[in-house]
Design a protein that fits this description.
The protein is mostly helical. The chain has helices at 18-32, 53-66, 81-93, 104-111, 177-187, 203-217, 249-255, 259-267, 282-288, 303-316, 319-330, 353-364, 373-381, 389-397, 400-415, 420-433, 438-450, 458-465, 467-481, and strands at 5-8, 38-43, 72-76, 97-100, 135-138, 145-150, 154-159, 167-169, 192-196, 225-229, 232-233, 299-300. Helix content is 46%, strand content 11%. Helix 8 packs across helix 10 (303-316), helix 12 (353-364) packs across helix 13 and helix 16 (420-433) packs across helix 18. The structure holds glutamic acid (GLU).
């Protein structure tokens, strides 16, 4: 038997939603599980009012970032317009469609208080001719049931009476989503339609159209298998909101998430690999994934868990990979790709590649995203320390003891052996003299040297920064505290 033919069919109406990325990934899994599986990208760009070319570029770039390579496409649905029109003509000829000139207001006025959703079938038997204001509706059977055979949900039964006579083409001639989508799926011989749950209610309409097209064309294309993926929800168990939740896949790339971590996390949204381990290499995800095992309960898109997972992936990188993958965030001027957000505050001439290579292992242990690197290490490359004012006020300006401690540290650090261990020991001793634990004793030192109270391990950092720059900064901070 030939392998599956699957498609990802996004509409370019906004940022590349994480839910869409999950749909793309699950389709890709199904294709990649078979040597002859085919993964197609079809951009459903027929809604000219809502589509933007930059969103198309965003989808393609994000899929490349995630490594979801294509076997066919990207196709543009708008290029298939002749085929959509052909479907319309064939369905008219087959008696499946009728012309309708009702406006939304007409329908509402007729319905009055009757709240039954959808069209009331008014024009069904009026036998109108095509005209400048006539849309085309599908004659939905009034009796019987349409069963959506869904791999994830089982058979979902729709009473045909609950499906209204939906519009397939507007009076302008524009062919609407349901028919354009089915025409393309049939022509592309799609075997599995894998998409978000929000499309489940479209499925009976699309099955009716698919079967009607099979009859009118006398080409019996086997109906695709459906799989409607569970909804993604936020912490409050509400559907992810485009405005309030961080749903743009692009933003994760720009913050410095690793695509392999992001893919691994997406795979867990409604599905789980075997065993307890959630960090699973891609090849195993592909091998183990089964549409049948996808859950139909809503999946929590947990940004904290995603961040944690990204941190784990970062720590697993070998040092050379870490340096290479850091490049866009630390030396954007020579990187092939750079994040759209603001880059580091140092310039090319201030950046010291060799120093960064030595600093890198310190940050690799601590960050959750690559965007965190620059603020954490900028004190190595900038001439002047950029102070977090609140931290400075708390750790130095308002604390006379801390200022005295700094003065003592300046003397000790002038003669101590310049390595992390000696600096560490010296600071313990200084702290003891003041009755302070190491954590307290190192706070004003860290703040004076780095501008902040958090950052990479202090003594290793001081070793790398060097004696003279460290002493200079301790002196400057002391001077600053009395200004
Ligand atoms: N263009 C539709 C969307 O982006 C795709 C629906 C489908 O996959 O059938 O929601």
């Amino acid at each position: 038997m030939a392998g599956p033919r699957v498609r990802f069919a996004p509409s370019p109406t906004g940022f590349f939603h994480v839910g869409s990325a999950r749909s793309a990934l699950f389709n890709w899994f199904v294709a990649r599980q078979h040597a002859d599986g085919v993964f197609i990208l079809r951009i459903e760009d027929t809604d000219a009012d809502r589509n933007r070319e930059e969103w198309v570029d965003g989808i393609i770039a994000a899929m490349q970032w995630l490594g979801l390579d294509l076997d066919e496409g990207p196709f543009r649905q708008s290029d298939n317009h002749p085929a959509h029109e052909r479907s319309v003509e064939q369905l008219i000829a087959g008696g499946y469609l009728y012309f309708c000139d009702c406006t939304g207001d007409d329908v509402a006025a007729r319905k009055g208080d009757n709240k039954t959703p959808g069209y009331d079938g008014f024009c069904r038997d009026r036998h109108l001719e095509r005209g400048p204001t006539t849309a085309l509706r599908f004659t939905t059977p009034r009796e019987g049931h349409t069963i959506v055979r869904d791999v994830i949900r089982g058979d979902v039964d729709f009473a045909n009476a609950t499906v209204d006579d939906f519009v397939v083409a507007k009076s302008s001639g524009a062919v609407l989503y349901a028919l354009a989508n089915v025409t393309d799926d049939r022509n592309d011989r799609i075997s599995h339609v894998i998409r978000g749950e929000e499309h489940l209610s479209n499925a009976p309409k699309q099955i009716m159209l698919w079967e009607a097209l099979n009859r009118v064309t006398q080409v019996d294309v086997p109906l695709a298998v459906y799989a409607h993926l569970p909804l993604l929800v936020n912490e409050q168990r509400k559907k992810l909101s485009k405005r309030k939740d961080p749903v743009a896949t692009e933003s994760y790339r720009d913050q410095g998430y690793l695509p392999e971590a992001f893919v691994n996390y997406l795979a867990l949204l409604g599905w789980s690999p075997r065993g307890d381990e959630e960090i699973v290499p891609l090849s195993q995800l592909v091998e183990q994934f089964r549409l049948e095992d996808v859950s139909h309960s809503p999946a929590f898109f947990d940004v904290k868990k995603l961040a944690h997972m990204n941190g784990e992936y970062i720590r697993k990188l070998n040092p050379e990979d870490f340096l290479e993958r850091s490049a866009p965030w630390v030396r954007p001027w020579s990187a092939e790709w750079r994040p759209t957000d603001q880059g580091p505050r140092w310039s090319e001439s201030q950046f010291d590649e060799g120093l960064f290579a030595r600093v890198a292992p310190l940050v690799q242990e601590r960050i959750t995203t690559f965007a965190e690197i620059a603020p954490m290490v900028e004190f190595f490359f900038l001439e002047e320390v950029i102070f977090d004012d609140a931290a400075f006020d708390k750790a130095i300006r308002s604390d006379v003891l801390a200022q005295t401690l700094l003065a003592v540290a300046i003397e000790r650090f002038d003669e101590v052996d310049w390595d992390a261990t000696s600096l560490h020991e010296a600071t313990i001793e200084i702290g003891e003299a003041f009755g302070l634990a190491l954590r307290k004793a190192q706070a004003p030192i860290r703040c004076a040297v780095t501008g902040s109270l958090v950052g990479p391990p202090l003594f290793e950092s001081l070793e790398l920064l060097g004696r003279s720059r460290t002493l200079q900064r301790l002196n400057d901070a002391l001077a600053r505290s009395s200004q």
